[in-house]
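Dear colleague,

Following up on Tuesday's group meeting, I ran the structure prediction for the two-component complex that the binding team flagged. I've pasted the input sequences exactly as they went in, so you can double-check that nothing got truncated or mislabelled along the way. The structure tokens for the whole assembly follow below. Feel free to forward this to whoever is handling the docking comparison.

Inputs:
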Amino acid sequence: MLNDRFLRACRREAVDCTPVWLMRQAGRYMSEYRAVRERYGFLQMVKTPEVATEVTLQPINAYDVDAAIIFADILPPLEGLGITLTYEKGEGPVIHNPVRTANDVAALREVDPRETVAYTIEAVRLTKQALADRVPLIGFSGAPFTLASYTIEGGGSREYRRTKALMYSEPEVWRELMGKLTSLVSSYLIAQVEAGADAVQIFDSWAGALSPGDFAEYVLPYVQQAIADFRAATGPTAPPVIYFGTDMSGMYSLLHQTGADVLGADWRIYLDNAWEQIGPDIGVQGNLDPNVLFAPWPEVQRRAADILDRAGGRPGHIFNLGHGIMTETPVENVRQLVEFVHEYSATIKANG
Amino acid sequence: MLNDRFLRACRREAVDCTPVWLMRQAGRYMSEYRAVRERYGFLQMVKTPEVATEVTLQPINAYDVDAAIIFADILPPLEGLGITLTYEKGEGPVIHNPVRTANDVAALREVDPRETVAYTIEAVRLTKQALADRVPLIGFSGAPFTLASYTIEGGGSREYRRTKALMYSEPEVWRELMGKLTSLVSSYLIAQVEAGADAVQIFDSWAGALSPGDFAEYVLPYVQQAIADFRAATGPTAPPVIYFGTDMSGMYSLLHQTGADVLGADWRIYLDNAWEQIGPDIGVQGNLDPNVLFAPWPEVQRRAADILDRAGGRPGHIFNLGHGIMTETPVENVRQLVEFVHEYSATIKANG
């Protein structure tokens, strides 16, 4: 690997400067992306390996980021299980046959993601070739809870009322659903590693809707299982696992138990406070508010510097946003941010 | 006061059992409320003191809650400043002339809430009479940030992009707007106390959208100012102030500086962890996930008991939900919850 900063940081090894990539870095804020998007629907982009590869590479060519992340989405892997999914303009994803009963869960098919998500597996393979070891490639999956909540609600949600009602009222059905989704998550991540992914991230974007007690009881065991199964299959040199959620500032101390190598933090907590709770033997990824990239550059710089100061040159920090980069983000701020993270963190490390 | 448990707990004095009330306890989940709502629009209810009084008393008559909270809404006090507000069916509040420029802010009128929110002040007076000291009456206001975010976005928001953009890009305009809203908050709370409110709550429902650094710099000083002005005006026996926000698990240690007597916690953190960060000299209100009330009663009970166990009989705990009670919540669970909090906490206190 020509640039292995990201992988070294995942293993908490010394690095010359802090690696940086941005969640959803291949996205609408880039004119190169919008040009492709004009010709294809979103799902069509995800399902056409050559297009997914092209889009994955766009931020690598535009900025000095230290990792690529495969262009894909967390929901299409559910289709193989029997879920009907569309993306409605302005509304986001819609699941037309939400899963809400024991029968619905029983009807979900067991799948081999090598077949049912063959398009993303192929995109990983093509991207890995095209990258030619310039930077590592990150594969990813939704986490069991976040997949379950979409599957039950039928789309995005603000209150997660049906999800929690099922969890509280029919724990057996919940466990059955979570078990099936956990198998999907681990086998999908394994398939991406077989195709060349150098690390994987598990997105539990909505787990922060839960209380710590409910997270510990109904969600954490499945994250642990998915990561353990992944490690068992990928062996002693298992690629690093990043676990990411938002709104979880009150439960970072629980996240140590996930078994992840790196935990992603959103911006709702100071990075050093998060790290104290998570524990020193795990890396931390984050945690700039994506909204900050709309600010004048000196304000962006001030906040990025604060995060790097709080990381204080400790091994195991990967700079990222606290959530996906937003549409309409000014690209000039993105370019400057990536450069600044490298330069400023190198100074901290030189002085530390 | 016949039942002063709530006020004693606000002052961290000994109580026979833990006081309990529920945010938005006068609301749609009650058939008595829906019967009134059929005859009036929502704003009409807020603006008709006799109706607001009737609705405020409904949960007091139905359950053994230890405090009443005036039926009102955080946004109507903005109308006097020049904001045009409607509530659209299914959409929530819409502000038709959002405030986004220096000129918009300059045009906001200075108001005396005794005049511009006379209907709620009168409702406080009527309710206080009708309660005849059965339980204390809580007045409330939105917090400067939450009012600002509605005012700038023009309604609810998921990303608060315009609010943060203004804050980052035009800090002088931000300060001007927050200053005006801070005056509104303190004078409105003072007017409610003059009319008979025994305590006040400041709702900063959306402050958790911020990073701790941005909260400390752009929001906290105004909360401090509002509370300090309130105390200066209401004198040495100033009624207790509760400050409540959601998604703030990463910044409870900052909230000690608000000057509030009690901090409201949402359900995204264990109550004892929140209290450790907040500090022992401040009370804590919370923190059951409102979704839990849709669970079978034994599951509700188990989670309520866990919260009371974590409070451990310490003085200063007020039991509440972590956010407003949801529509369609089964009233039988509400009734049982209130009873259980009293009975179970009395046992803890007897054994402690």
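Chain A has 16 helices and nine strands.

Cheers,
M.
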